[in-house]
Structure formats: structure tokens, C-alpha cells
Write a structure and sequence with these properties.
heterodimer, A: alpha+beta, 6-stranded antiparallel beta sheet, 17% strand, B: 84% helix, 0% strand, Phosphonate transport system permease protein (chain B), transmembrane (chain B), MetI-like_sf (chain B), PhnE/PtxC (chain B), transmembrane helix (chain B)
Chain lengths: 464, 289
């Protein structure tokens, strides 16, 4: 019965079928892996990965990273008109220094209001000066660069030696004149000279004017000063109490647009919640009609099954496009697109769950003389409820992410705001701010839905 | 016969439960009613006018397609490369994401003899990959890598790692420990135990989730393409922007048909996987496992 000695060869010979079986399985595994490898090689060429790597601009990621956590002060001198000189945060007209008596030039900029002689301390030994249309930039360990304008060209005088790669001296594509000089010795210091203007940038870490706009009387106030303003100080604006003024100034901040972004986030959440709830509540009764166990009329079941497939097959992308045309921009559009797609998905899921329930409970309720509604209420609903709740909540989380994408297609909400700020790519700190808020909202929805799911499902199964 | 005190408690419990149910229904109804009212007021177009215009757009593009007659199918044929591009995005993302998900799922399951401190770290990182909005990742990568299909592929792949990793690790939690212990007694190392004791148990479920994810990823790739990264979505964006209805109709038809085919095929395969092994390739797969 049992072999006392272990003879591998004999054993294998006796079970030739098993050996063949195992070998065949092994070959299938290897073959499958090879097929995947071949496919990925094809994908490499189809996606043109080599070309992509060659053309990728990783420095854009660095730039984006720097710009997202820093702000810069522009010192701009226009050469077309006399006295066209400005020192401003991010070059914004609303955030210029030297225009109001309580907002003088920063200490590191020494200049007359006309900008005839400007002396800029860029920190760390870097220094830039502007005299008329002559710009100099002093770089430690390199020397002084002199840039001036002559005969319609931007000319530069560099120290001896090879030209470093942070200097770009560009010619006009057709006339071959030197028209632009750009020096960026470090990521936080930059000098640009064209034939019409001289611009010096200096970067500072942090988000500027995050709470209050530059011109507002609240700008730069400490939390303690704000607290005093709320509690004891007289009104700054006779029309509004101070706490309302503070909130209003923050909410309407033109650069950061806290108000606009909050409304957009609300719209996105609204889309997800309304869409999912509608889909779940419409999907459930339809699922009863589509389940073999509850509906004996075949054609209706068949029709509903195809309807679910159709709603899912059309896909959220196409539904969004149709609804955007019909209903315009806004949360209603997104909510309906989600509701239509997911009525198909959830209806299908629920009807499958209904076909798999245990009929004994329903029969037990029926034996007590219960009618159809009582049977359903006490024999079926308790079984389907966990599936209903958990799938509904799962889709709520997933739809919050979908709602950001639908928004970007044009339905509105945070997705659209994000795409627009990214397209203009003017201020990456605003983009980062929106990204952080969006990720926070999505993750909160995820945490909330899994918490609720745990609570409700455990409560349901733990109840007597 | 009935303990009156117990009876009272049960009645009180029942009453409270009913109250909770009623409250839930009221809250849901309130959210729906006030939500739709709010949504309608925030929408640029109203609900009633919209309802009347609902069929306008489908009608327009169908009419535009009809006008082309037989040429329409030539246009459909011309968009096949875009469809292949979208399918490539989805397939590559599912393969790469799925492969990484298998590894991470094994590293994040408690009963598979993994170094314990690793488990919460891997789980957290999968959560982050799953919840991070694909849109943001895709837009960022488009900015760095330029507009092509790859940003969408990476974005979908990252989400796939998180989503599949979570499902796979739930499957892993339910495996039987006995084969693992048997192999361990025979002196198998961790890799061998995973390969010969765990993988055969989990492979059918893995395949099922994998197919479902591919189906989801085809949709996601199409939608991300619209935001600016290749495939059907990018073509759709262009045709809508230029207002060429017949092209839009052709693209929507392609998308709908391919999603339907993939949907039905994957449902059939998944049913077969869960079934009794009636398919020929399934018997082979049983041998492979």
C-alpha cells in the first residue's frame, strides 16, 4: 500500500499522467508570462517610450515643485516708457510695493520711484543693478555679467571662460538678432532682459497673501492682533462687524479664491452624493424586477438586464457629454451623469445579490401568513441590506473621484477649476492648494464611507 | 409564559430601531430634495429646459452620421487606431498595476508570515494610491512628460495598484494555512510557500478581479484621454471642439461597442471562473495552479 523506499524515477513513471499535467501547467504559466512580456515590448514601442524619455522635461517638475511652495517678487522695468517701474509680488497689479505710504519697497530693493537707478540685493552675495537700460548681475564664484541694449539687440558681456548652462541668450528666429537674455544662476534668482523690459525675480519660501489680499488693512496682521480686532478694537469698516470683515476678506481673496474653491468642492461632493443616492434608490426597485426570484415575467427581466447594460455601456464620459449639452455647467449635470451610469451598475449588482439570497427566511415569514410586502420587508430586505449599504458607500467614495474627472470634462466643480488653473499655469501654488484640498476631500470621503460601512454592517450582523 | 420585562425590552429596542430607520429615510430624503434643489440653482441650465433638450445632442450627431451614409463606416474604421491606443493604455496599466498589486498584497497580509512592521506601511501606501485622484496625477504627468498616452497609463496604473492590492489582500486573508504549514514542514522558503501553497488558492479570484479591473480601466482611459492624454478621449475632445458631429458619433459608437464587448466577455469569463470548470482552458488552468 505504501512505498517504504522513495524511488523518484519509479514514482514518476507510475504517475505519468500527473507529470504531464504538471508540465503542461508549467508551460502555460511560462507561455502566459512570455505573452505578457511580448505585449509589454509592443506597448513600449506603441507608446514611444524612448521618444518620451528623450522629450521629457524633468526640470519642469522641479520648477513646479519650487513654484508651488514659494512665491516670487518681480522687479520690472519697462523700457518703452519713462518711469515704467514696478516692484510687485508675482507681478500682480494688486500687490505692488511703493504705491501706498505703508507699503514701501522691501529693504533689499533700493530704487527711486522712476526706477532710473535700482540696486537689488538677491541674497547670498548675488546682486543685480539697473542703470538706465544697463543691467548687471553679480554672481559669486563667477563674476559680473553686464547686459545692455544697442541697435535693437540685447548684448551681454560675460566673464572669461565657458558660458554656464544657466545662461540663455536667444536670437530672433528670422532676423537673427539677439533679443533675449535670461540668467538663472539658482532656482530662486532670475534676471531676464528683452528689448522692451528688464525683469528681476527673487523667490521666497511660503505662500504669499494666503489669508488676506495685499492691499487689505488686515494684511500681515498677527493672530493676536486679529483676536484683538474681533474682541475689543473699533470697527475697521463701519458697515461690518470686524469678525465678518475678516471672514469676508478671507473668503473673497482674489488671488487664492478661497470662496470659489470651497463652492467648487461643495459642487463636486454634491454631484457624488446625489448621483450615488439616486442610483442606489432607483437601482434597488429595478433590481427586484430584474431578479429571477422576484419577477416571473421573462421579457421584463430581459429588458431590464439590457437596460442596465446599456446604462453602464454608454459610460459616464458619454452621459456627461450629453448632459452638459442639455443642462449646461453645474452639479446637476454631474449628478445625473453619475446617477445614470451607476443605476446600471448598482441595479445589476443588486439583482445578482437578490438572486443569491437564502429563500428559507422568506419562506419562514410566509409561513406566518405574511403578505408579499411583509415577506419582502422581513425576509429579503435584511439579507440584501448589507450589500446595498456597502456597495452604495463604496460607490460614493469612487464617485467622488469620478466627479472630479467629470468636472474636468466641463460639468464644473473642482475638476474644472483645477484644469483651468493648470492650463494657465500661472501660479502653481494655487494649483497645489487646490490639489491638497481635493485630495483631502476624496480621502475624507473614503474614510467616512469605510467607517460607515464598518459601523452599519457590524450593527446589522450584531443585532439580535 | 413570556417574561414581561424581557418583552418590554424587546419592544423598546424594536421601537428604537424603527425610529432610527425612519430617521435614516428622512435624512436621505432631505439630502436628495435639498441637494437637487441646490444643484439645480447652481446649474447654468435649468432642469425643465434641459429635459426638453435632452435628445437634441444625440439627435444632432446621429443626423450628422446619417448624412454621411456608407462613408460613416469608413470614419469608424479610421478611428480604430485611437481605440487600440485606449485599449493599450488600459491593458498596460492593468498588467503593470496588477503585477505590483500582487506583490504588495502579499506583503500586506497578516497570515502570510510577512515581517509585521511592513504590513501597515504597505497598506497605507496602497490606500494613498487608491484614493489619490487619477485626474490630478494625469494632469501633472502631462505637464512634465508632454501630452501623450503615457501620463494616462501611469495614472490609471497607480490607481490599479491601490484598488487591486486591497482586493487581493482581502483574498489572501482568507486562504487556508494548512498548505503553507505543510510546505514549511518540508523545508520550503517563503517564496516557495507563496508560490506553491498560496498562489493556487488565490489565482481564480485574482483573475476574476483582474478582468473586472481591466473593464473599469478601459472606461477610465477613455475618460482621461478627454482631459488631454491620447486615445479615443483625445479624438473625442477634438471632434467635439470642431463640432464635427459625424466623427463624434463614430467615436461614441466605437466606445460603446467596445465597452459592451469587453463587459460581456469579462462577465462570461468571470462566471466561468467561479463555475465548475466547464471551459477547456479552465481545466488547463487548474493544472497550472
Amino acid at each position: 500500500m505504501s512505498a517504504t523506499t522513495f524511488e523518484a524515477a519509479e514514482l514518476l513513471a507510475r504517475h505519468a499522467h500527473t507529470v504531464r499535467h504538471v508540465r503542461r501547467g508549467w508551460m502555460i504559466t511560462v507561455g502566459g508570462l512570455l505573452a505578457v512580456l511580448v505585449y509589454l515590448t509592443y506597448a513600449w514601442t506603441a507608446f514611444d517610450i524612448s521618444g518620451l524619455i528623450a522629450n521629457a522635461e524633468p526640470e519642469r517638475a522641479v520648477l513646479l515643485g519650487t513654484d508651488a511652495v514659494a512665491h516670487k517678487v518681480h522687479i520690472t522695468k519697462g523700457l518703452r516708457r519713462q518711469g515704467d517701474f514696478e516692484v510687485a509680488i508675482e507681478g500682480e497689479r494688486t500687490a505692488t510695493y511703493g504705491q501706498q505710504p505703508d507699503r514701501p519697497y522691501p529693504a533689499w530693493v533700493r530704487a527711486d520711484p522712476e526706477g532710473r537707478h535700482v540696486d537689488i540685493d538677491l541674497g547670498g552675495g548675488y546682486r543685480a543693478t539697473i542703470d538706465g537700460d544697463v543691467t548687471t548681475l553679480t554672481v559669486p564664484d563667477y563674476g559680473t555679467i553686464r547686459v545692455w541694449i544697442e541697435g535693437g539687440e540685447v548684448l551681454a558681456d560675460l566673464p572669461e571662460g565657458p558660458v554656464p548652462d544657466w545662461i540663455r541668450h536667444a536670437r530672433h528666429p528670422t532676423s537673427d538678432l539677439l533679443i533675449k537674455f535670461d540668467a538663472r544662476p539658482t532656482i530662486g534668482r532670475r534676471v531676464q532682459v528683452t528689448r522692451s523690459k528688464i525683469e528681476v525675480h527673487r523667490y521666497f519660501l511660503g505662500w504669499e497673501n494666503f489669508f488676506f489680499p495685499f492691499r487689505s488693512p488686515l494684511h500681515g496682521m498677527s493672530p493676536a492682533a486679529l483676536a484683538a480686532l474681533v474682541t475689543v478694537e473699533p470697527r475697521l469698516d463701519p458697515a461690518l462687524p470686524n469678525w465678518q470683515l475678516i471672514l469676508k476678506t478671507f473668503w473673497d481673496n482674489p488671488e487664492w479664491q478661497h470662496g470659489v474653491i470651497a463652492v467648487a468642492l461643495f459642487e463636486t461632493i454634491l454631484m457624488a452624493v446625489l448621483g450615488t443616492f439616486t442610483a442606489a434608490l432607483v437601482g434597488l426597485p429595478l433590481a427586484f424586477l430584474a431578479a429571477r426570484t422576484f419577477n416571473k415575467i421573462g421579457p421584463i427581466r430581459f429588458f431590464l438586464r439590457r437596460l442596465f447594460d446599456f446604462l453602464r455601456g454608454i459610460d459616464m464620459l458619454i452621459w456627461s457629454l450629453i448632459f452638459i449639452r442639455a443642462f449646461g455647467l453645474g452639479p446637476l449635470t454631474g449628478a445625473l451623469a453619475i446617477a445614470f451610469t451607476d443605476t446600471g451598475t448598482l441595479g445589476k449588482l443588486f439583482s445578482e445579490a437578490l438572486e443569491n439570497i437564502d429563500r428559507k427566511q422568506e419562506e419562514g415569514v410566509q409561513s406566518t401568513g405574511a403578505n408579499f410586502f411583509q415577506r419582502t420587508r422581513f425576509g429579503v430586505i435584511p439579507q440584501i441590506l448589507p450589500v446595498f449599504v456597502s456597495q452604495g458607500l463604496y460607490y460614493l467614495e469612487s464617485n467622488t473621484r469620478s466627479a472630479t474627472v467629470i468636472g474636468a470634462l466641463g460639468a464644473g466643480g473642482i475638476g474644472l477649476v483645477l484644469v483651468e488653473t493648470m492650463r494657465t499655469s500661472r501660479d502653481w501654488e494655487n494649483t497645489l492648494y487646490i490639489i491638497i484640498l481635493t485630495v483631502m476631500v476624496v480621502m475624507t470621503m473614503d474614510a467616512l464611507s469605510s467607517w460607515l460601512r464598518r459601523r452599519l454592517i457590524q450593527g446589522a450582523s450584531g443585532a439580535p | 409564559m413570556v417574561d414581561p420585562h424581557l418583552h418590554q425590552t424587546v419592544v423598546a429596542l424594536e421601537r428604537r430601531r424603527r425610529l432610527y430607520s425612519a430617521l435614516t429615510i428622512v435624512v436621505v430624503a432631505l439630502i436628495l430634495v435639498s441637494g437637487y434643489a441646490q444643484a439645480e440653482s447652481m446649474n447654468s441650465g435649468g432642469f425643465i429646459q434641459g429635459l426638453r433638450k435632452f435628445f437634441d445632442y444625440p439627435q444632432d450627431i446621429v443626423a450628422a452620421a446619417w448624412d454621411r451614409g456608407g462613408e460613416f463606416f469608413v470614419i469608424v474604421w479610421e478611428f480604430i487606431p485611437a481605440l487600440i491606443d485606449t485599449l493599450n493604455i488600459a491593458a498596460t496599466a492593468t498588467l503593470l498595476g496588477g503585477a505590483l498589486a500582487v506583490v504588495l498584497a502579499f506583503l500586506s497580509t497578516r497570515n502570510l508570515d510577512v515581517w509585521p512592521p511592513l504590513i501597515p506601511v504597505v497598506r497605507r501606501s496602497m490606500d494613498i494610491m487608491r484614493t489619490f485622484p487619477e485626474l490630478i496625477l494625469a494632469l501633472f504627468l502631462i505637464f512634465v512628460l508632454g501630452a501623450s498616452s503615457v501620463p494616462a497609463m501611469i495614472a490609471v496604473a497607480v490607481h490599479t495598484v491601490g484598488a487591486l492590492g486591497k482586493l487581493f489582500s482581502e483574498v489572501n486573508e482568507n486562504v487556508s494555512r494548512q498548505p503553507i504549514e505543510g510546505l514549511e514542514a518540508a523545508g520550503a522558503n517563503w517564496m516557495q510557500r507563496m508560490r506553491f501553497a498560496v498562489l493556487p488558492q488565490v489565482l481564480p479570484n485574482y483573475t476574476s478581479y483582474f478582468l473586472l479591473r481591466f473593464e473599469i480601466n478601459v472606461r477610465a482611459s477613455a475618460i482621461l484621454g478627454f482631459v488631454g492624454a491620447g486615445g479615443l478621449g483625445a479624438e473625442l475632445r477634438r471632434s467635439i471642439g470642431w463640432g464635427s458631429g459625424h466623427e463624434t458619433a463614430a467615436l461614441l459608437l466605437l466606445l460603446f461597442v467596445s465597452i459592451m464587448i469587453i463587459d460581456q466577455t469579462s462577465a462570461y469569463l468571470r462566471r466561468a471562473l467561479a463555475g465548475d470548470g466547464a471551459l477547456p482552458w479552465q481545466r488547463l488552468k487548474g493544472a497550472a495552479a
